[in-house]
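Changelog-adjacent note: as of this version, every example in the card shows the full chain rather than a window. The one below runs 163 residues end to end.
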Amino acid sequence: MGIAYAAAELGVNETPIEAADELQRDPGIPPAPIKRVLDSGPVKAIGAVAHHDLAAWALATEMGDGRELKDLHMAAERACQKLCQRLSTLVTVEGYRAMLARAMQVAAVEFPFLDESSKGPSTSSPCLGDIATSDGILKATVHDGLTAVLAGVIGLSITFIGE
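Full-length structure tokens:
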């Protein structure tokens, strides 16, 4: 049994210790792969990868030729608004905002710059607020954080509504 297969069989966001305990029950897995699991951090479900890929695609599509941080923020805002327009018919605008707030809260664990925005969107930017305009944050970090937020909304939508 390979390490990737073992990881795919484990639960979403299972802790490394839980994953290692599961792997140790299989006598065919030597200790080295178990150590890699312990060193790897939480195990992500395959679906989470698909949500991340879809969010990254949506962000890239909305960004177009833009290369500046403000372009990235505007692209994320447009993607967020499009999701809101489509999902609000199924879960209401308040339901969408609740999913967005939860996605931002979860993503803020890995991307602390999102923490201030998880307290609620600003009036100038109805979905994401002013999270990407902070000085001193690398564009790649902002991109990853915004992608995580969009992926979180997609994942929550699938959880509550279905595919």
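Structural remarks: Confidence is low (pLDDT under 50) at residues 1-13.
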